[in-house]
Amino acid sequence: MARGRLDFYYEFASTYSYLAAARIGPLAEAAGVEVTYVPFLLGPIFAAQGYSTSPFNLYPEKGRHMWRDLERLAAHYGLPPIVRPATFPANGLLAARVATALNDASRPGFTKALFLREFAEGQDISDPAVIRQVLAGLGHFCDAPIEAAQSQANKDRLRAQTERAQAAGVFGAPSFVTPDGELFWGNDRLELALDHAVRGA
Amino acid sequence: MARGRLDFYYEFASTYSYLAAARIGPLAEAAGVEVTYVPFLLGPIFAAQGYSTSPFNLYPEKGRHMWRDLERLAAHYGLPPIVRPATFPANGLLAARVATALNDASRPGFTKALFLREFAEGQDISDPAVIRQVLAGLGHFCDAPIEAAQSQANKDRLRAQTERAQAAGVFGAPSFVTPDGELFWGNDRLELALDHAVRGA
Prior knowledge:
The structure is a homodimer.
Chain A lengths: L3 E7 L4 H17 L1 E7 L2 H7 L6 H4 L1 H18 L15 H9 L5 H14 L7 H10 L6 H6 L2 H16 L7 E3 L5 E3 L4 H10 L2
Helix pairs in contact in A: 1-4, 1-6, 1-10, 5-6, 5-9, 6-7
């Protein structure tokens, strides 16, 4: 039985969401925390803050540091070297819809595998062919997940997840929210969030 | 003999600079890293990025998270509970000038003690009386440090330190820079920066 619960809010275009997605599985298992994966879209949340694109593009020095930081952290965590996709931030809409359409058992594997394509292979995750390859690699050999992703009901579900993120105070990705409403922002806070999920306030 | 070197760039108005200042002494000593304390002003650096004040004030949700994060981290590190100063960000000009005027032996103690006044007691560090009390607590019983701080030569030194920060790519505080030019932004990166200072690239 789980000793605690945690909502993991992530956006497929987000570099630090990649690091969190790569790490959260074993860390949560070791802590006995049950994780709910909640893909959402940063676009509307950034727009509400007045950002037209990623702050890493708006502030070039911050962006330079982020890419270097990402390289260092990937090495630190034992992840493959970073390969920057040609376009940043990627359009993560289809990816988020597919992740939303998958069931709870398939979502974590898809999330982790697609992030690896994006930031360890530099692939364009807005390309349906890339998403299809990742799905096939996980045993989904037909277009059903992509078709389900494009249904109105699923689009609405993703929109509701983004609204849920906003209601929880999420302003960036990744974010972690515990059942008592504590919000932890950033891959750097994953350990503290897991700890809080177990210990409580 | 030191096994490595590190420049520690900090701004007295910065909450995460407080956490770094509270932690860097023993961590650097344990790692065998010699730290150069470089107070600087974020104002000109934020202005160059188009910010009129702290991003934590410009983005209320980010600001709310920062204060809660600070409380949690203070508890995590075993620091006193956070007491928010009435004005944030404080005007850290005089504090930075005094820190600059002090010698290398006195600067770390002054830095740590003034930050404690600011974020563990909620005092206004732009108030010369608060700075005088901190100086007295460290054994400086006359106004010489404050007078030295206001000399043109010292003002120029602080300005040069801010320019040196900008030249090193610093865009926020705290930041750590190793002799090979690696920039690490944020209290969260202190350990990695110390590690890099020892191991090299």
